[in-house]
Amino acid sequence: MTIRHAIKRKKWMDLAWLTLYYVKFFALMPLKLGFFGALKFHFFLRVFEGTWFVVVTQSNHVVMDVSEDDTKLSWFRMQLKATCNIDDSYFNDWFTGHLNFQIEHHLFPMMPRHNLYKIQPDVLELCRKYNIQYLSKPMGRAFLDI
Predict the structure, then answer these.
(1) By the 8 A CB rule, do 106 and 81 touch?
(2) 127 and 68 share one domain
(3) Measured CA distances, 87 to 28, 81, 102, 120, 144 (Å)
(4) Are 17 and 70 within one domain?
(5) Residues 65 and 120 in one domain
(6) 108: left (phi over 0), alpha (psi -120 to 50) or beta
(7) How many structural domains is the chain composed of?
(8) Which residue range forms the structural domain that includes residue 15?
(9) Domain Fatty acid desaturase spans what residues (predicted)?
(10) In sequence order, which residues have a C-beta less than 8 Å from that of residue 29 and are 6 or more positions away?
(11) Same domain for 26 and 64
């Protein structure tokens, strides 16, 4: 979220938190790194964060085989065809911010991410019942696929 976006959408609490972050960051970091060092560090953080986000999200989406013919599928089937999960583990949950449960995230987008694992058994049961593929991969395989 950018400051401009927060102002445009009148998200005053978000604007306050963003402002507090930048004030704190640029009040403290230059003491240790100097002003230009703080700018470089901030840039490095954003590059790292952006790269991490792209790798995590693309490993669940880009590799899926979706075609124009799939528009005839039901919404539920389309969600399962358009995305996959990364296998559940403590590390994968932490590293992906619980976005390793991408199937459940697409089916229940408003559910807090840290609760997505709770609905997974029900989704798996529905997939078994209606013979719908439910794809979950090891993290290494998902990263290699992209």
Answers:
(1) no
(2) yes
(3) 39, 17, 10, 12, 14
(4) no
(5) yes
(6) beta
(7) 2
(8) 1-33
(9) 7-136
(10) 37, 38, 41, 42
(11) no
Residue 66 has pLDDT above 80, yes or no: no
- What pLDDT does 59 receive? 81
Residue in this structure with the two tokens 């694992």, named with its chain if needed: 117
Structural domain includes residue 14:
yes
Mean pLDDT (the chain) is: 88
**Buried (b) or exposed (e) across 45-67, using 16+ Cβ within 10 A?**
eeeeeeeeeeebeebbeebeeee
Mean pLDDT of the 51-57 span? 84
- Domain membership of residue 45 (yes or no) is no
Task: Return the structure tokens found at 69.
Answer: 């013919």
Separation of alpha carbons 61 and 64, rounded Å: 6
Name residue 78's amino acid.
Answer: M
Please tell me whether residues 26 and 61 are part of one structural domain.
no
In whole angstroms, give the CA distance from residue 63 to residue 95: 19
- Give the number of C-alpha atoms closer than 13 A to the C-alpha of residue 106, restricted to the C-beta side: 19
Are 64 and 124 in the same domain?
A: yes
Q: Is the pLDDT at 125 greater than 80, yes or no?
A: yes
